[in-house]
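Entry type: protein chain
Record version: 2
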Amino acid sequence: MKTSSSELKRHAKRTLKGRYGLCIGIQFIEFAILLAISLVYILTSFSMGLVRDPFLNGARNVSAGYVVLKAGVYISFLIILSVYGLIKPGVLKIYMNMCNGQTAKLSDLLFAFQNKPHRFLGLYFINLLIGFAWGIPYFVVLIVAVITDFIPVMIVLLVLTYLLLLIGNIFTMLYLSQSMFLLVESPDQRVIGSLKESAAMMKGNKGGYFYLLISFIGMVVLGYCSMGIGFLWIIPYMQATMTEYYLDLKERISHNSPGRGGETSSQSMWNQENQW
């Protein structure tokens, strides 16, 4: 039987009772790491701004310092994405432990670093690339619109391609929303397998998941009204609810048997495949 959104939220509240300190600490650690790396990227970009582009000035020879700075900008950006892509599975691991009644430790933040990090990075970047692919038509039309001085037909195409970008990303997010949970539970699973399994799990469940997401809009607005302070409690609540949703969904499709420990039919199928 499907668990209602309100019941999932009640489960999340019970899970978080007495554990908000840990969850807020996780947010601070995650924010501190990303802030430190972002500062490196900002400082590198600022240094680049102080150096004139030799190609723009007609220079034939490029100095080694300029090349190093240019490479530093791109490398710093990739590091930011990669570190975040490896921290997020650790956050999910902590919430899954809490929701399953297991011990949650700060050291679990390093879960992805210790369990085949290339797979978590692969899944993270695949999701990013899919989102980027939906935006390609929009950016192409935008460039043409700028060249043609935004003639009416290009404005219409801009609106249509933007809707394609928005709707495409929403549907992709809904289909692949459970893939990271699946990989956290089974790090030996193939990346493509986790994506396919997530899509299989979400068949017939996308509407309910979307409703659950938009039910937090009021709380998000309140979080911004509190100058971001409210998010210290809102984000753990949302994350715990999303984790409860995954566990409940897995239970509902696990051979029609009660309990959260059952293996789904799709899990059984994909876990038999070779490693990525």
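Comment: The radius of gyration is 22 Å.
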